[in-house]
Design goal:
Chain lengths: 286, 789
């Protein structure tokens, strides 16, 4: 449990952090909460030469509302989100996602930006980001860009983030109208990551769902929006029959993961069960 | 203080444990200490073609690198096995060498190939990455039943069929005849899965050779330092025992895995002599998963025969026990004498035969793990009886009551002679099950279950009873069964001149609270304050000898040794008191910490007598000064705790997840010294048994890779998986030891796993599901429901 030798560097601005990334390329790693990175380093699965600590950069930890967007600083901890009244009042599902991560100690250290950059296939945040159609704000040497969540997660531990870029903010459109949200999670019993995590937002107009967003984590190599489920429920009343029919479409046209906790077959089944749980809960929250 | 026995005194050791002041082996830092990193095989089975250490040796801070070749050239024996179980045909047990570092071949994933010693742990690890081991991977075998088949890869070239021994107990012919007459026969084939012990403190060893005195000190996280010293000196390194001191300071859990003499202990001791400096090795967590001896791993087929009245008449058992790649210290004893001998259970079965084959595989060595053999025996019996109840359509509780051995106290009625060698000391079995059923409100629960079923709720109620053999063990008996050591215990009771008492015990706590329980006994018997009693253990230099802590033996055997010392003190004290009080010994009584001349107010305190013993100015003629007695206690028999556990579960049909709603344990561990500690032992044991039933299990793939060797992959039971345990006790004292105690360390583990599995099977009965193997993971349960709907 001893990492390779590395050089620790505290960055005081985002620009400074980017400079290190430019200089060291793939030999540099950003340290945010460190809850995935440090174990990987101790197991020598990840051996950065330069560890750039971004925790001391001012102005990366905040939760605020701006132009109908929930704006979260990238270094905001899971616990800060879990306990935010603002988040709870606008998109309560995000508080559920945050609260389902690890234990309190983990949530006090781990950050949303760190989790997104790491893109563990079983991490909780990616599902929440996809279901809310969040925008990941990324800064690099050339300036900033906004990447929609659906374009951000590209595979196993793979994202749209380039080697010399850093996530600075997450912007989440605040849904309008009569909305219901929920996150339903089946935990992997050893790690307590998501075996299947399902985040959803539905909105109801004239008794029918006019908009359904539903995303899974843990099911495939990266989190994804399940359009088949979304289409099946859109235009229908969010009642138990329609939700059951829609949930049956879950994870049909995706490559599903398999491990000793859940085979492909069982995981696909769980996706249906948890899609239904999430949709039912969201419907009850309308 | 008198009347300390039976009080729920708070554990005195907890102050240091919970405030971070415990002192564990890894906390020890010696001047000039070097650090070792062990290079282990990534393959389960591979030829070692060569090891290139050139680059690593040149690295700064690297002091030495030793390989299996160095060990072989130094003529060092491997670590020995402490128990011999021969083949049925008289052939000697196969006992392949278990070298400190392997030279030619790795035989399990984690087998030690080389050791790098450097000035820091980090440097040792860095250098280890530069050591190039050239392996030629070979086919591996991990399943015990498959390992004996023709053509299976051999773990040791000269051991055909991978068999270490085969063994039987009971009357084969009588059992076959009886089973042929059975009115009903229930058959169960199952794997009692392999478990990884997961003590919170990883193993650690520091070798420290002092060349000026030619003395060695080994610090090791062990459950029995004296036995380690004996085995290492006499069988591995060939050094005189008086030149070696073994110290085990605070030990952070063991569950059996720290009983055994491990290669790293001898390796650090030997390396320290080569380099003239102390050397520390501490296991990383991944090493703990790979190299701490695992537990269980039985492949079993068992049949239970019943007569037309539902009485059990016969039991036939065939088990393949996976021993791993080498024979660990007690490995041969666990599936035989700690398993086969317990197959009588609490029942009047008249014919039993058990046949066990001990098998080598390319896996981590398997040895005693909390319960050791007895959980396997109990699981076998209690699953069989539940399955039989289902098949015969009778209530599982009623079937058990019908078959219980009638009560016997071992004094007025003789002990119960089983069909499988043991004689139970005392037992009264129906009351524990009655009480457990009362606690759970069995009748009401059955009604709730029935109405739940109508509403699609899958509620299950599972019963398990158990008996175990503890207080290990009468030396003559175990000697005749293959043990290569006696299993008595020692205690030295030293009354200091001021009347304070130091007790040096050969058992060694790794979580059991001996410093509290033993002090309670001494305080009670001498009528002094608990604070005036000190318990010393874990150091071969201060404690005369000891056989350590395992097999729920410390109180029954070690406590009895303390009682012998206490008696000797009181006997001598009475002589001194009589002299001082100018009375006859016969006229004295000892109570409340003083000797009093009966019927008078003339008395002398314990402290004054102690002082007199050390300042013998006015002293009985011919009596030796001092007040210091060493005692050895060898028990007359094992002790036999028993109990009944009931689990209540609800199964989620949609996901297969088992929700453990309630857990009831009514145990009889004989007399109780500290009920709070006994409750704690039961709670911890129950949690571990539930862990086996629902969550745990080592998984090897076909090539012998341990797939789930981390906490991200190996599911330990957690507090939020468990309900509040409901516990109670009955008391049937042990008739053959002075405290009447039986042992409580393993009871919870033994009873709980089958109760939980029986509960899940009960919940799934409407689907026609009769048996599933542990662990009952959601997918396994869901698949069963799905395939039977």
């Amino acid at each position: 449990m001893i990492p390779n030798k590395f050089d620790y560097q505290k960055a005081t601005t985002v620009e400074e952090a980017i400079e290190y990334l430019v200089e060291y390329g793939d030999e540099a790693k950003l340290l945010a909460g460190g809850h995935s990175l440090l174990p990987a380093m101790k197991l020598r699965l990840n051996n950065p030469v330069k560890l750039v600590d971004i925790n001391r950069i001012p102005g990366l930890k905040y939760i605020r509302e701006e132009n109908a967007m929930l704006c979260l600083g990238a270094a905001t901890t899971h616990y800060d989100i879990e306990s935010s009244e603002l988040v709870k009042s606008k998109i309560p599902m995000l508080c559920q996602v945050a609260a389902s991560i690890g234990d309190l100690q983990v949530r006090n250290m781990g950050t949303i930006g760190g989790s997104l950059a790491h893109a563990d296939p079983a991490a909780d945040w990616p599902a929440g980001m996809l279901a809310t159609e969040a925008i990941i704000v990324i800064q690099g040497p050339e300036g900033t860009k906004n990447v929609p969540a659906k374009d951000f997660f590209m595979g196993l531990y793979t994202t749209a983030l380039a080697e010399n870029e850093i996530i600075t903010e997450i912007r989440i459109p605040i849904p309008e109208g009569n909305i219901g949200t929920a996150y339903a999670k089946c935990v992997q019993p050893a790690s307590r990551f998501a075996l299947v995590g399902c985040a959803t937002i539905i909105s109801k107009n004239n008794g029918l769902c006019d908009r359904v967003k539903l995303a899974f984590t843990g099911v495939s190599v990266n989190a994804f929006c399940d359009e088949a489920v979304e289409h099946a429920l859109t235009g229908h009343a969010p009642d138990v029959d329609n939700i059951t029919i829609a949930a049956e479409k879950a994870a049909i046209n995706v490559d599903v993961l398999s491990d000793h906790f859940a085979s492909e077959n069982y995981r696909r089944h769980l996706a249906k069960v948890y899609a239904k749980k999430a949709l039912m809960e969201a419907a009850n929250n309308l | 203080m008198t009347n300390m026995i039976g009080k729920p005194v708070k554990r005195v050791e907890d102050k240091r444990f919970i405030s971070g002041k415990g002192r564990y082996t890894d906390d020890i830092v010696l001047p000039g200490m070097l650090h070792a990193h062990i290079i282990r095989s990534h393959y389960a089975h591979a030829k070692i073609l060569g090891i290139d250490t050139d680059q690593a040796e040149k690295m700064e801070g690297v002091v030495a690198i030793f390989t299996g070749k160095d060990i072989a050239e130094a003529g060092i024996n491997g670590v020995p096995c402490g128990w011999q179980v021969d083949f049925k045909n008289g052939e000697t047990m196969k006992e392949p060498p278990h070298p400190l570092l392997v030279a030619a071949k790795a035989r399990y994933m984690g087998d030690a190939v080389a050791v790098v010693i450097a000035e820091s742990k980090a440097l040792a690890k860095d250098a280890a990455e530069m050591v190039m081991v050239d392996y030629e991977p070979l086919d591996a075998i991990v399943d015990a039943a498959m390992a004996v088949e023709d053509g299976a890869p051999l773990v040791h070239e000269d051991i055909p069929g991978n068999m270490a021994f085969d063994w039987e107990l009971g009357d084969r012919e009588k059992t076959n005849q009886t089973m042929a007459k059975a009115h009903h026969t229930t058959t169960l084939e199952f794997v009692n899965q392999r478990l990884i012990p997961n003590a919170i403190e990883p193993r650690c060893a520091i070798g420290d050779y002092d060349s000026t005195n030619d003395k060695y000190t080994l610090y090791t996280s062990s459950q029995n330092p004296h036995l380690i010293r004996l085995l290492m000196c006499a069988f591995v390194l060939g050094i005189p025992e008086h030149k070696v001191r073994v110290v085990s300071p605070d030990v952070g859990g063991g569950f059996g895995s720290k009983i055994f003499h491990y290669t790293e202990e001898a390796l650090m001791t030997w390396c320290s002599k080569q380099l003239g400096k102390p050397i520390k090795w501490t296991a990383e967590r991944s090493e703990s998963f790979m190299t701490d001896c695992h537990g269980r791993d039985h492949v079993t087929k068992a049949q239970m025969g019943f007569d037309e009245n539902g009485k059990i008449i016969g039991l036939r058992v065939k088990t393949f026990a996976n021993l791993g790649a080498y024979l660990s210290t007690f490995a041969p004893c666990v599936p035989t004498y700690l398993h086969g001998t317990l197959l009588q259970g609490l029942y009047t079965t008249t014919a039993i035969h058990v046949d066990v084959t001990g098998v080598f595989t390319h896996t981590t060595p398997v040895d005693a793990y909390r319960g050791a053999g007895r959980p396997e025996a109990t699981y076998l019996l209690e699953r069989l009886i539940d399955k039989a109840a289902l098949e015969m359509k009778v209530d599982p509780a009623a079937l058990r009551f019908k078959n219980f051995i009638p009560p016997f106290d071992g004094i007025n009625e003789p002990g119960f002679q089983t069909e499988v060698a043991l004689q139970y000391d005392s037992g009264n079995y129906a009351p524990v099950l009655k009480r457990a059923m009362e606690m759970v409100d069995y009748e009401a629960l059955r009604e709730e279950q029935a109405s739940g079923r109508n509403n699609g709720k899958l509620i299950g109620i599972g019963i398990s009873t158990y008996i175990e053999a503890c207080g290990i063990a009468p030396s003559a008996v175990v000697g005749s069964l293959g043990a290569r050591a006696g299993l008595y215990e020692s205690a030295q009771v030293r009354v200091q001149p001021t009347g304070k008492v130091s007790v040096y015990v050969g058992s060694h706590a790794h979580g059991q609270g001996h410093e509290t329980t033993f002090a309670q006994i001494v305080a009670d018997k001498f009528g002094i304050a608990m604070e005036d009693v000190e318990i010393v253990h874990g150091d071969s230099e201060s404690v005369a000898f000891g056989m350590g802590t395992y097999g729920s033996r410390s109180l029954a055997v070690g406590g009895s040794a303390i009682m012998k010392g206490i008696e000797k003190v009181l006997e001598k004290g009475a002589k001194i008191a009589a002299h001082k009080l100018e009375a006859s010994e016969n006229d004295l009584e000892f109570a409340e910490g003083k000797w009093t001349v009966k019927g008078t107010d003339k008395s002398i305190s314990f402290g004054d007598v102690a002082l007199t013993a050390y300042v013998p100015h006015n002293y009985p003629e011919g009596l030796e000064p001092g007040m210091d007695f060493a005692s050895f206690y060898d028990p007359a028999n094992f002790t036999y705790p028993f109990g009944a556990h009931i689990a209540v579960v609800e199964v989620d049909k949609e996901t297969g997840k088992v929700d453990l709603k309630r857990f009831i344990a009514c145990d009889d561990v004989g007399n109780v010294i500290n009920p709070m500690i006994v409750d704690g032992q039961i709670h911890g044991g129950v949690a571990q048994g539930i862990g086996q039933a629902l969550f745990e299990g080592a998984i090897y793939d076909e090539s012998g890779q341990l797939v789930n060797g981390s906490y991200m992959d190996y599911t330990m039971p957690r507090a939020d998986d468990l309900p509040l345990f409901e516990t109670d006790r009955t008391v049937t004292p042990c008739p053959h030891n002075p405290l009447g105690v039986k042992g409580a360390g393993e009871a919870g583990t033994i009873g709980s796993a089958p109760a939980v599995v029986n509960a899940v099977m009960d919940a799934l009965a409407p689907f026609g599901i009769k048996d599933l193997e542990m662990p009952l993971t959601p997918e396994k349960v869901w698949n069963a429901i799905h395939n039977n709907q």
